[in-house]
Amino acid sequence: MSTHTATAPETAPTKRTKAVMSERAIAENRLGLKLVAPAVVLMLLVTAWPMIQALYLSLFNYRLTVPEEREFVGLSNYVEALSDSLFWGDLINTLIIMVVTVAIELVIGFAFAMVMHKIIFARGVMRTAILIPYGIITVVSAFAWQFAFSLNNGFVNGWFSWLPWIEPTTNWFGSHWPAMFAIMASEIWKTTPFMSLLLLAGLAQVSEDMLEAAKVDGATWFQRLFKVILPNMKAAIMVAVLFRALDAFRIFDNIFVMTRGAQDTESSSFLTYRQVIEQFQLGMGSALSVLLFLSVLLLAWLITKAFRVDLAQARGEG
What we know:
Layout: H1 2-57, E1 60-61, E2 71-72, H2 76-82, H3 85-118, H4 123-135, H5 138-148, H6 156-159, H7 176-203, H8 208-216, H9 221-232, H10 234-249, H11 253-258, H12 268-278, H13 282-307, H14 311-314
Antiparallel strand pairs: 1-2
Helix pairs in contact: 1-13, 3-7, 3-10, 4-7, 5-7, 7-10, 8-9, 10-13, 12-13
C-alpha cells in the first residue's frame, strides 16, 4: 500500500508533462506551417513551372538549332546519360569536391566558431573580418584564385616554393589533380565563413553550466569537446553540413572561371551547362538537370539519416 502511494504522485505529473509537451509541439508546428506557407506557395509558383517544363523536355530529343525535328524518345535520354562514362566521371569529380571541401570547412569553420565564441575584445570586428570572403561574389573570388595559381603571374608558386612538391614552374592547371586542388582551395576559402557562422549559432546553444560541471569533474579539454560540446551541437552540425554539401554538390562558378572543365575537372552542373548552352541539347540537358535534382534530394535524405538528429529533443522537448 505504501509503495503504491509513493509512486502515484510521481506518475501523474509525468503524464501531465508529456501531454503539455505534446500540445506545445502541436501548437509550434501549426505556427511554423503558417509562417512558412506564404514562402512555400511563392517558391512553388516560381519553380513549379520550370521543373515541370524540364521534366517534359527531358522526354524529347530536342536540339534548339532544329526545333522542328523535336522527337519524343521517352526515357532514352536518361538511359543514355546513365550509361555514359562521362556522366559518372563528372559525378565522381563532384562527390570528391563535395566531400573534401565540406570536411575541411567543417574543421576550420569549427575552429573559427570557437574563436568567435570565446573572444571578448573586438568581437564584432573579428566576426566581420572572418565573414569577408563569404561576402565576395563567387565569380570574383574564382578569378582571384585563378590569378593566384597562374603559372606566369601567380604568387602561389613563389610563396610556397619551399614545399617539396611546389616549384616556380608548377602548372596548376596543366593536369587533373593540381587543377582540382586549386578549385577546392578557392571553394574552401570562399565558403568556410558560412560554415563557421552556422556552427557559431550551434555553439551558443551549448550550456555553460554543463561545461563547468564537466570541468569540475576533471574532464580534459578534448573530453569536454567530444562528450559535451559536439553532442549538444549535433543539430547545428547537421544543418551546416547539409547546407554546404548541397551547395558544393552544385558547384559551377569556380570550375567555369578557373578551368572551363579542362583537365577532367567537370562537375555534374557543368556537364548540364555544356549540353544546354554550348550544344543546344535541351532534351539531354533537361534530363541531366532532373538527375541532378534527384541526386540532391537523395544526398539530403542520406545526410539527415546519417546524423539521426531528434529535432524535438534539440528544441528541448525531449
